[in-house]
Write a structure and sequence with these properties.
There is one protein chain. The chain is α+β, with helices and mostly antiparallel strands. It has 21 helices and 21 strands. The chain is globular and about 75 Å long.
Length: 715
């Protein structure tokens, strides 16, 4: 029904009079970037979608236009390092017209603003290049104010030059303190600025449009997002944890495409013909002619190298360690579906000894709630998903590793698929409500786990932090409400809204797109009647509520065992977003808890606090957080080399002493200055303490009973 309604609305909009936009004002000294026809169409359709289907039911007006203007300006130059006050005064004429411009598909004003930004950015690069051989005095008491967000824009080019000179001096000072010679530092900065100039020259209308649409949609609410076609592809591949291609991660280095990583299991890995560090200078589709990739944008090159499963691609390779002038190798690969196992759920087992008794605990790290919907809809029985992966891990932990408890690590898990959150919860509870969803009409839908039985009926805990959001909050909130496990960490992000992914090409009639394509091709003399790719919008259309009736919006999930947050709660979280929806609540869903853990939790908190009072790690964690807060409040830094070096040396010595004090407490040898600890020495204090909480949990033997079919009554 939604798709049909969207089709009617958007088709009507497309058939409406296609008014020509204003003539875009040109900016001297730069290659002026202009919007494409399809971007004008997208802007109009996004307005229609937001005004008709966004949960806020908001209508664009002058007030919203002003918010978009400020957001866009801040996105371009929030640090006030580039624009002059006169630039911003000039832009003010657009403050209250952006709403009408978007509705009409007129993007001339924001593209003009971006071109002015590009002019100032290029001026900064050229000025910085001119400072390479300047001799600076690093003995004065000069300071550099690097945080200018709350300061006014500068009034003249001379003032900008002074700021840019201090900024350059600071970059050079960092290199000097790091021990670089003057000649080496000059070369480093020359290379840095030339690379920035090269990348700046590759900026295109897609880049500008993405920045602009981010400012537009996030002014409505923080999680309504538009994705240009390349970014939509990347978003959906991340959600699926798989893609079709050769199985290599690429990066740009000095205008050449370089292989940064070979993904295990992919065609490149299996062929044993490609290696990390190899350079790709050309690509050909099967037997076709090669395209020279030198100087291409990375995303454009990637689009030529990736392709559908079963198709062939030839690559022209300069092997790692050889000069670019060397004779290239030609290799041929057959593209295939590549699964990103390194970004999927994974397990490990740790043993904790408490009061002379050992407990084996299986830790499952879940980086996101992902699902390959395309493969699932195609009937692939082995499609990728969080729940399927975790179910297999649980089976191994239970039957092979013989663990006593499970600890789900959802730290920094920003969410993903709502369906996966429900199904993952179903692995730990028997049938019952998991989440309530209220749509923009106010209708509440209780979504439940309908599958009988559980995959794990033993003790469990969940680790969360400030970056745990959305689906992570649904899962951890349900586990908490049901009394199914112990939640440990810090208050979560508080994202309690639901987004629907809408492919704009799917909601527009094909014949309309063809007519539009013909118009575009006629104007641009492109010839072929290819339908333009319009991208995707993730539109906020509903809100989440826990089974107890509370929204996760703003408040998130509060842990049972609380740790200090390494992320600033006043800067990161839904409650810091000006356009976020408010918290509210609905009626409880009538769920039946499986256990009453209130008495157990109070005991666990007391035992945890007792350990923390004696913990060196806890003491240093709180000290680190206080230090970060202090640094975050600073806005300037000295440009006196001796003073800055002394500060950093003292900080380095303090950190080294602290590290060795902690290592000594764990029976590890000290590390020397400049020496890096071994990877095996990595210590996750939050996780280790969470494991001890789980051990305490299991020691409360028989203190509660879980109402699960086949559940163990005794831990």
């Amino acid at each position: 029904m939604l798709g049909r309604t969207l089709f009617v609305t958007l088709t009507a909009a497309v058939l409406a009079c296609h008014a020509a936009p204003r003539q875009q004002q040109l900016v001297d000294g730069v290659t002026n970037i202009k919007p494409e026809e399809q971007q004008m169409l997208v802007a109009k359709e996004v307005v229609n979608l937001i005004e008709n289907y966004n949960y806020k039911k908001i209508q664009l007006n002058d007030s919203i236009s002003s918010v978009i203007f400020d957001k866009y300006l801040k996105t371009l130059d929030g640090s006030k390092n580039y624009f002059l006050a006169s630039d911003v005064k000039d832009f003010e004429r657009f403050r209250y017209s952006l709403d009408d411009d978007f509705r009409n598909g007129d993007l001339s004003a924001p593209f003009y603003m971006y071109n002015v930004y590009m002019k100032r950015f290029d001026q900064w690069l050229k000025f910085s290049m001119s400072q390479i051989n300047t001799k600076f005095d690093f003995t004065s008491n000069e300071t550099f104010n690097y945080d200018r967000e709350k300061l006014p824009y500068l009034n003249s080019q001379e003032e900008l030059n002074k700021l840019w000179k201090q900024r350059f001096k600071y970059e050079l000072l960092n290199l000097r303190i790091a021990g670089g010679t003057d000649a080496k530092n000059a070369q480093t900065l020359t290379t840095r600025y030339k690379n920035l100039q090269t990348q700046s020259a590759k900026t295109n209308s897609q880049d500008v449009f993405q920045v602009l649409m981010n400012s537009f949609t996030e002014s409505i609410d923080p999680h309504t997002n538009y994705f240009t076609p390349p970014n939509a592809t990347a978003f959906n591949e991340d959600m699926a944890r798989s893609f079709e291609g050769i199985g290599a991660r690429l990066q740009m280095e000095n205008d050449v495409i370089k292989i940064a990583e070979i993904i295990p299991g992919g065609p490149a890995f299996k062929s044993k013909q490609l290696f990390q560090g190899d350079r790709i200078t050309g690509v050909a589709q099967g037997p076709a002619e090669f395209l020279d990739l030198t100087g291409w944008r990375l995303d454009d090159a990637v689009s030529k190298i990736k392709g559908p499963k079963g198709t062939k691609v030839r690559l022209r390779i300069i092997p790692v360690g050889m000069e670019l002038s060397a004779k290239p190798r030609i290799i041929e690969l057959t593209r295939d579906r590549v699964v990103l196992e390194d970004q999927s759920a994974k397990k490990k087992v740790k043993t904790i000894t408490e009061n002379g008794k050992q407990y084996k605990i299986g830790i499952i790290e879940v980086p996101a709630f992902y699902a390959d919907f395309k493969a699932a809809n195609a009937g692939d029985p082995n499609y990728k998903s969080t729940t399927r992966d975790v179910r297999l891990l649980l089976d191994t932990l239970k039957n092979k590793d013989k663990v006593d408890a499970i600890l789900m690590d959802l730290r920094s898990n920003g969410g993903g698929s709502l369906l996966e959150a429900i199904e993952l919860t179903g692995l730990f509870i028997d049938r019952g409500p998991v989440v309530q969803v209220k749509d923009l009409r106010g209708k509440i839908d209780i979504q439940s786990d309908e599958k009988p039985g559980v995959a794990w009926d033993g003790p469990m805990g969940v680790m969360i932090d400030r970056l745990s959001a959305s689906a992570s909050e649904i899962f951890s909130g349900a586990i908490q409400d049901y009394g199914r496990g112990i939640i440990m960490g810090t208050q979560t992000y508080g994202k309690g809204t639901v987004q629907s992914a809408i492919d704009l090409n799917r909601v527009l009639n094909a014949s309309i797109l063809q007519r539009f394509a013909a118009l575009v091709n006629k104007k641009n003399v492109k010839g072929a009647n290819e339908n333009p790719q319009l991208g995707q919008i993730n539109l906020t259309m509903a809100k989440f509520y826990r089974v107890n009736g509370s929204s996760t919006q703003h408040k998130g999930v509060m842990p049972d065992i609380n740790f200090p947050s390494i992320y600033p709660l006043d800067k990161i979280g839904e409650d810091t977003e000006p356009s976020a929806l408010p918290w509210d609540e609905v009626s409880p869903s009538g769920f039946k808890p499986v256990a009453d853990l209130r008495n157990v939790k109070s005991t666990l908190v007391a035992l945890h606090n007792e350990r923390m009072a004696k913990s060196l790690d806890y003491k240093f964690l709180k000290a680190d957080i206080a230090e970060m807060q202090k640094r975050d409040a600073e806005q300037s830094i000295t440009l006196n080399q001796a003073a800055l070096k002394k500060e950093r040396d003292e900080a380095e010595a303090k950190n080294l002493n602290r590290l060795n004090e902690l290592r000594a407490s764990r029976g590890l040898p000290p590390v020397k200055k400049g020496e890096r600890p071994k990877k095996d020495d990595d210590y996750d204090f939050i996780q280790e303490e969470s494991l001890r909480v789980m051990a305490d949990f299991m020691r409360q033997n028989g203190s509660y009973v879980m109402n699960l079919p086949g559940a163990r009554k005794d831990f």
